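Quick one: sequence plus zinc ion SMILES, need structure tokens.
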Amino acid sequence: MQLTSFLHSTALFVCAVSLLSTAAHAEDADGKLRIIVFGAHPDDAQYTSGGTAAKWAKLGHHVKLVSVTNGDIGHWQSAGGPLAQRRLAEVKKADAIVGAETQVMDIHDGELVPTLENRQKIIRAIREWRADIVIAHRPWDYHPDHRYVGVLVQDAAFMVTVPYICSDVPPLKKNPLFLYSSDGFQKPYPFKADIAVSVDDVFDQKLTAIHEMPSQHYEGGASGSEEHVAKVPPASDEAARKAWLRERWERRQGGEAKRSRDALIKYYGPEKGAVVKFAEAFEICEYGRQPTVEEITVLFPFFP
Ligand SMILES: [Zn+2]
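Reply:
Sure thing.
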């Protein structure tokens, strides 16, 4: 490359970077929080964090729900591009109800590995969102894609602040708060609810969002079957379907409230914390910012 063209392309690059950072600062200037939630498949982020996302969005904060794979083997009856497109359409509908933005990365379902290339994708996604809070699976989950999302996000923590990696996207000035979403796995250590959010007030909204992903519950996703579909009320009986879904999610989110009661009492006080019915809980990852209780109440501005 000749020196003049090198200087020209360098100037263009610097210009593009400064434009990007100006745009990012303009977004930051609204004073609202920016949250990015990673799940492995187009439904995970909605399942783990959809209620809390709705609460942030209601207050004008910016939430993005990301699926790191495209979900293209997540059904017992269909696969490939058409399934990926169907699932993208499902999460877009669900996220619109929650008030969040959608991103689905074009990586095959069941094939996610913690490569350098994928680490760089995660670093860029966190930086481009200018995230204050990052949520992901723990790396101790049953599904390899879930585990590797946990590993990739851990590997991106701290690196998001280092200027000369992925230098095409401006680094974050502050390491975000990195959180794990909840799971029931016990080894090597069980999930610890450091923060628990009551989703009682947005439970119906979360259900309405989840209802928009029929491939994964009414049809059973990768674990579905004709027998499963026969047990679920048909699409023609929407009220019965929603009741079926409600029963399952009351159990799931109710169990999460019981298991995270101590954290609910810590943040809502003994009276309110004791009667929360449905919760979403999060564990603080050691690799990100370590917030004080006061900082947590700023980042989760719905505690009383
Ligand atoms: Zn999943």
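The longest strand covers residues 34-39. The longest helix spans residues 3-28.
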